[in-house]
């Protein structure tokens, strides 16, 4: 095996650009996933069957089909419907949408974990539905599921190189471009592989610590 | 939907066959890795536990797609091992999903009542006999529901191979897209194809679960449509085996 440290050095400027884009995609993707997942979870508890049923069907469909194909769908089909977005924006929307179907299940579990008596108390106090959710149910539900949400952020990090397939220049995209000009695949791909572990491992320790603190 | 000629459909159907093959072979390799690593993590010797734990952290810590790129581009250049694309893909998928699976095996083994082990020791079973005759038969039905989730993740993961030119469904779709000059029909069709495959996989695993539970005299859990993702074992971490988040 030959290892060329100068190739690592040459790759570094691109690598840091890639790290920034990966983190940007991760943060924005997570925000979409957290917000949209909550919408799905609350819609699935709607009293209206006409709301519950389609939302369940859509989330099941998105969760059980590959992210990569969804990214291609967004990237190639949206322009046909005259919505043109950059590769990175498409990637962020794709990641957020895909993972929102997972976070929806997390929220659902959290909401179901809130004792029935809390709902009944709200009814007894004739609290409006909006206030029941925002002041009573969600604060109790979300606190417990923060570590589980964290797990999905880590999972999203590991799926984020897929957005390179539609041309976003995150870590893997940068490594591919570097390889295309230098013909040295060993160093950049190994470096980003290690970079994923270096980011993911402390993050997983953090979620474990959160789990000890928040889940009681 | 109407513009797809039979030739183009054939491309997609060949892709389905490749995807099914990839899923089956990677699952077989993944299951083997999961059992070896999962059992090794309960070993008495700390060095065995450490090495298997390290394997799990590395393969679970990095991205499957990056690992696949590594197998495709770095192995040939750095070590001179040129793998057939199909097998490089199976190796990458099997090794990384096996690492996730090892947590399922370890968790299920840990959930078997300790008294069972102690009874085995009292009857002077060898460690191998305790594993194969006491722990695994009782842990096995517990592994199936989370393994089902993992298999669906694996099925979705096979789409990654198209980036490296293996002719699976997604690769077939890109060819059809180029031929058709239209994206919406073909990508809708293959999303539905993947969903059907995932659904069939869930049905099969349900049947396996019923059989496994019947084998140790338990009733199967109530059936639902698709299986919900297991939040505890999610995809990342959570060592605690008690009921945490949910």
From TrEMBL, chain A:
Gene Ontology molecular-function annotations: transmembrane transporter activity
UniProt KW Transmembrane keyword: yes
Residue spans crossing the bilayer: 20-41, 189-210
Membrane topology of the entry: Multi-pass membrane protein
Keyword Membrane recorded: yes
Biological process per Gene Ontology, one example term: amino acid transport
NCBIfam families registered for this protein in UniProt: ectoine_ehuD, HEQRo_perm_3TM
Family the UniProt entry places it in: Belongs to the binding-protein-dependent transport system permease family.
Listed name of the protein: Ectoine/hydroxyectoine ABC transporter permease subunit EhuD
Source organism (scientific name): Streptomyces reniochalinae
From TrEMBL, chain B:
Pfam family for this entry, one: BPD_transp_1
Bias type Polar residues, positions: 235-246
A GO biological process held by the record: amino acid transport
Gene Ontology CC terms: ATP-binding cassette (ABC) transporter complex
Gene Ontology molecular function: transmembrane transporter activity
Keyword Amino-acid biosynthesis: no
Family affiliation: Belongs to the binding-protein-dependent transport system permease family.
PANTHER family linked: L-CYSTINE TRANSPORT SYSTEM PERMEASE PROTEIN TCYL, MEMBRANE COMPONENT OF AMINO ACID ABC TRANSPORTER
Protein name per Swiss-Prot or TrEMBL: Ectoine/hydroxyectoine ABC transporter permease subunit EhuC
Organism: Streptomyces reniochalinae
Lineage, broadest ranks: Bacteria, Bacillati, Actinomycetota, Actinomycetes, Kitasatosporales
